[in-house]
């Protein structure tokens, strides 16, 4: 009798498990899934947004993650130092060059005198009434610098060549530091610190006025955004016991060459977010992820209006972003897909406006060189590309600011779930 009861109980328990399993499968089938795609050209901050999503809605970063990011950060530091030194050679900027000591007015007077001499030598003399006539101006290609000459850059190059001719360019502590940095390996093992002599060398060149001037011309070469943040904090980041904070991880840079997926749940809804590489060579991998997309977040580096693409060193990054957005926004597959634009890196945009005119690169811009007018101009440029006249949402973001991104993501969730 007992055996019979035990058998019946076992059968009932098995049946109950099957029912529970079926209910779970049914619940999973009815559970809403949102598929979200992060798109944009290279260096726009897609991976940083994904890091923020992991911090805000995911599990965050465990010690194993932080140890791996420590290697990334140290590699970023070496990369920045080497990039700056290479740019010094390409741009012909000598160590010790101080742009504040350049007499721009005197240079301009000499230029005008030289120009007048050239004109006389070519035409014999300048007739009355002809002196004020300029040659016809060439059309400015959008995204290319319209200024034809920078007297300070030319003064730097002349100083560089003068030192080169005298053989004085490769002597002294700064050149010793440069040699140490050039010889330093790019990679580091887990737990391996940057040698102290290399850290000291990086700190020395970073304090140099010529290197600082080279840094201010970073739009002319490829320098990762975290350069100043990391090189200004060498003592902490290069300490043997350093462990990255969340902010350090957000500031770090690794080029995306694989498709990564992050899942998180909000109020019972599963969000699947895909981050894909933005460089041209990575875009051929995008197509398989276009099916069943609920929304696209398209990232634009709004500070990139004076920068060139990593791929060809000639195409303006903002122009590249505009062209890519036009092809995505107007793709028939996305006719009814929610489209959200993150005009990202507003912190760097504000800083750049203090020194770089938008109109030098985008001649159709006629407003004051300030944040409100400049940001509205670029947002309007993107929105004007929408041929389907569907609703496109624009948000101005600072991807390394967790509080700001948390607020924006909450708004994005509401948009997607409407």
From TrEMBL:
Pfam families in the record: G-alpha
InterPro entries according to UniProt: Fungi_Gprotein_alpha, Gprotein_alpha_su, GproteinA_insert, P-loop_NTPase
The UniProt regions of compositional bias labelled Basic and acidic residues, in chain numbering, are: 134-145
Q: Keywords for this entry?
A: GTP-binding, Magnesium, Metal-binding, Nucleotide-binding, Transducer
Report any one BP term from Gene Ontology: adenylate cyclase-modulating G protein-coupled receptor signaling pathway
| GO CC aspect terms | cytoplasm; heterotrimeric G-protein complex
- Gene3D superfamilies the record matches: GI Alpha 1, domain 2-like, P-loop containing nucleotide triphosphate hydrolases
Protein residues bound to Mg(2+): 47, 256
Task: Locate the residues binding GTP.
Answer: 43-48, 250-256, 275-279, 344-347, 399
Instruction: List the residue ranges of the region (Disordered).
Output: 115-145
Q: Its Gene Ontology molecular function terms?
A: G protein-coupled receptor binding; G-protein beta/gamma-subunit complex binding; GTP binding; GTPase activity; metal ion binding
**Where does the source fall among the domains of life?**
Eukaryota
Q: Which family does it belong to?
A: Belongs to the G-alpha family. G(q) subfamily.
Kindly provide the name given to this protein in its UniProt entry.
G-protein complex alpha subunit GpaA/FadA
Taxonomic source organism: Rhizoclosmatium globosum
Q: What are the top taxonomic ranks of the organism? A: Eukaryota, Fungi, Fungi incertae sedis, Chytridiomycota, Chytridiomycota incertae sedis
């Amino acid at each position: 009798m007992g055996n019979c009861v035990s058998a019946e109980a076992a059968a009932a328990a098995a049946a109950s498990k099957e029912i529970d399993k079926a209910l779970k499968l049914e619940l999973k089938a009815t559970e809403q899934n949102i598929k979200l795609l992060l798109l944009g050209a290279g260096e726009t901050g897609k991976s940083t947004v994904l890091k923020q999503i992991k911090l805000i809605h995911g599990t965050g970063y465990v010690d194993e993650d932080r140890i791996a990011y420590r290697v990334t950060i140290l590699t970023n530091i070496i990369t920045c130092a080497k990039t700056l030194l290479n740019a010094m050679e390409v741009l012909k900027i000598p160590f010790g060059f101080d742009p504040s000591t350049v007499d721009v007015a005197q240079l301009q007077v000499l230029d005008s005198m030289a120009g007048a001499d050239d004109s006389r030598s070519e035409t014999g003399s300048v007739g009355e009434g002809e002196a004020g006539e300029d040659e016809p101006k060439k059309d400015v290609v959008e995204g290319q610098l319209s200024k034809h000459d920078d007297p300070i850059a030319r003064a730097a190059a002349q100083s560089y060549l003068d030192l080169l001719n005298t053989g004085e360019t490769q002597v002294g502590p700064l050149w010793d530091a440069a040699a140490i940095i050039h010889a330093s390996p790019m990679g580091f093992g887990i737990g391996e610190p940057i040698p102290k002599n290399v850290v000291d060398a990086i700190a020395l060149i970073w304090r140099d006025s010529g290197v600082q001037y080279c840094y201010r011309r970073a739009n002319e070469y490829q320098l990762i955004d975290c350069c100043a943040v990391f090189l200004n904090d060498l003592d902490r980041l290069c300490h043997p016991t350093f462990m990255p904070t969340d902010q350090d991880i957000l500031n770090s840079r690794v080029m995306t060459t694989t498709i990564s997926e992050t899942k998180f749940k909000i109020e019972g809804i599963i969000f699947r977010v895909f981050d894909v590489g933005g460089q041209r060579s990575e875009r051929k991998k995008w197509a398989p992820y276009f099916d069943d997309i609920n929304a696209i977040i398209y990232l634009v580096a709004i500070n990139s209006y004076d920068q060139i693409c990593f791929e060809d060193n000639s195409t303006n990054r903002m122009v590249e972003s505009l062209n890519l957005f036009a092809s995505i926004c107007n793709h028939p597959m996305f006719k009814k897909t929610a489209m959200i634009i993150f005009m990202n890196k507003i912190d760097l945009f504000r800083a750049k406006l203090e020194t770089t005119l938008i109109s030098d690169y985008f001649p159709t811009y006629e407003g004051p060189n300030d944040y409100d007018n400049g940001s509205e101009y670029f947002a309007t440029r993107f929105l004007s590309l929408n041929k389907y006249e569907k609703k496109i949402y624009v948000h101005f973001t600072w991807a390394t600011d967790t509080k700001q991104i948390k607020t924006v993501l909450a708004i994005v969730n509401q948009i997607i779930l409407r």
